[in-house]
Amino acid sequence: MADREDEDAAPQEEPVRQEPDRPPLDEDAAWAALIAGFDDEPEPGAAASWPEAENVPEGPDEDAEADGTAAKDAGAVPQPGATRSIVVHPVIHGPRDYEVAEDDDDDHFVPPEPPPLPDADATTKFAWIAVLGGPLLLLGFVLFQIELTWWALTVGVGGFLGGFATLVTRMRTGEDDDDRPDGGAVV
Questions:
Q1: Running DSSP on this structure, what letter comes out for residue 174?
Q2: pLDDT at 74
Q3: pLDDT tens for residues 44-96?
Q4: Is the whole model's pTM more than 0.90, yes or no?
Q5: Is there a contact between 57 and 79 (Cβ–Cβ < 8 Å)?
Q6: CA torsion sign, 4 to 9 to 12 to 13?
Q7: How far apart are the C-alpha atoms of 137 and 160, rounded to whole Å?
Q8: Contacts for 133-139 with beta carbons within 8 Å, 24 or more apart?
Q9: What's phi and psi for 75, nearest 5 deg?
């Protein structure tokens, strides 16, 4: 029953706060005021925008310093002069100056010389000549703008296809590797 009463009751609306009407901000005038007051010193009674500990106290008069009559207390901190300069000290040693000592005794891996290529028989050599020579023959005809005749096309295309087929059929099948007792990879 209490649930039904809650459902029937109208939800209470929150009071809407109405802000006082204020004129729209003139951005151009605000920017002009900021730029005009850029170099102005703050009012003497205005609150400082940083802690008092960071304020540098005013130094003694230049006339008093020239006469040597400036007050010198035992605990007085010397005041910075009117002109300040920054002294940049050169870095003598840094982390990038460190050099690793070369150790000649350290053995580095030097790969062995690869074995020489096996001697090819005459059939393999002619197959390679046909695979490379056929396209070069056709390219030569095109570059020198010579008319491609039927025999040049036959030699170029046929030489490439025949040499490729010969090289593929003469490839090792790997049957020798199947005779190993372990049948695994050899490192």
A1: -
A2: 47
A3: 777 766 777 777 767 655 555 555 555 454 455 556 556 667 777 776 776 67
A4: no
A5: yes
A6: positive
A7: 10
A8: 133/159, 134/158, 134/159, 134/160, 134/161, 134/163, 135/160
A9: -100, 10
DSSP string, 97-151: G--PPP-TTPPPP-PPPPPPPPPP-HHHHHHHHHHHHHHHHHHHHHHTTPPPPHH
**Single-letter amino acid code for the residue at 80:** P
Residue pLDDT, tens place only, 39-50:
887 777 777 667
Q: For tokens 């008093």, name the residue.
A: 64
Residue type at 99?
E
Token pair 């070369």: residue: 102
In this structure, which amino acid lies at residue 75?
Answer: G
